[in-house]
Design brief:
319 residues; alpha/beta; six-stranded mixed sheet; 12 helices; globular
């Protein structure tokens, strides 16, 4: 099968736009949707933190012994500065920072530019007061369900600032792209021949696919961190609420993307951000009506908790 065509075809076994509740007793949510991906790594449990540390260790190829979840909304320093939200924002025990994101599909915008801006904001946040210009390293880590570069064959691309002779500057800015399309070429490779990063990539891609259940089980049993991640997916999948939230977020994102494309074609650039915010608020209201936890809504629709609380007050039962 043509690789590009295969890439376009690949999707979770249970597409989010089709299911508002668990379709059957063994169906699993897919980490390719960022709601589930975030859910694996952001629970306030030792199991979730352990999975996060193991994943970061696999990506950075060094042991990560401690991480702390951080607020995912960096403060804009001026009214003109673009507001943004990190998906999973963490701090290491040595002061380094990372933003971790799952990107299920390629977007119309330049993803490389977006990653650079996110990394730059991370580094700005990590700069220390004083005259010595001190700052720990930052990492913008993206798990991509598409090739960043067409027909790429690298599982991981790690970008830093270099000069024209490829000599690194200070390596404070690190941008890492993990290519699931390339990693999926290894499906059915003996588990004991896979690297930790390859195991995570195959887990993200196939944990919800019943025809890969035995293979994924072997991967899960080979890595304690992935075992904990699998438990999170199993637990989240038991709740119809999580299927409903994932469905709602997917539809909101689809509608938002369509609205943005229409706005761009009509030259309505200045109204784009207002449209994004309105879409997020509408989705938040729908989730509030289903009594989804405030923190979950805020994290999922990328609104401040305070704004979600204000929206809750506007509902009839809270008026």
């Amino acid at each position: 099968m043509d690789e590009v065509f295969e890439e376009q075809l690949f999707e979770p076994q249970y597409p989010a736009g089709l299911y508002t509740k668990r379709p059957n007793a063994t169906a699993l949510l897919s980490p390719l949707y960022d709601y589930t991906f975030k859910g694996i790594f952001t629970q306030e449990t030792e199991e979730s933190y352990f999975a996060l540390r193991c994943f970061l260790s696999a990506v950075l190829n060094r042991k990560v012994s401690k991480v702390t979840l951080k607020p995912n909304e960096p403060v804009a320093e001026t009214t003109e500065q673009k507001k943004m939200t990190f998906d999973i924002s963490v701090e290491f025990d040595d002061g380094e920072l990372a933003d971790i994101e799952m990107q299920a599909r390629s977007q119309a915008y330049n993803y490389g530019v977006r990653a650079e801006i996110l990394a730059a904001r991370l580094l700005t946040n990590n700069a220390k007061k004083g005259q010595n210009w001190e700052a720990s390293k930052v990492y913008q880590i993206s798990v991509l369900n598409f090739h960043y570069k067409n027909n790429d064959n690298k599982e991981l691309r790690w970008y830093t600032m270099t000069d024209d002779s490829k000599e690194n500057l200070e390596e404070r800015l690190n941008i890492i792209f993990i290519d699931l399309v390339t990693i999926r070429k290894l499906k059915d490779k003996p588990v004991d021949q896979l690297t930790p990063l390859e195991k995570w990539g195959l887990f993200f891609s196939y944990v919800d696919h019943e025809d890969k259940r035995d293979y994924i089980k072997s991967i899960v049993e080979s890595e304690q961190g992935i075992m904990e991640a699998d438990k999170m997916v199993q637990k989240m999948s038991d709740s119809d609420d999580n299927w409903f939230v994932q469905n709602s977020l997917w539809i909101a994102e689809r509608d938002r993307t369509a609205s943005l494309e229409i706005a761009k074609k009509k030259g309505l650039e200045e109204g784009i951000q207002q449209g994004i915010q309105q879409s997020a608020r509408e989705t938040a209201i729908a989730l509030l009506k289903e009594e989804i936890p405030i923190e979950t809504i805020a994290r999922s629709v990328k609104l401040p908790i305070e704004e979600v609380l204000e929206l809750q007050k506007e509902l009839p039962e809270h008026a």
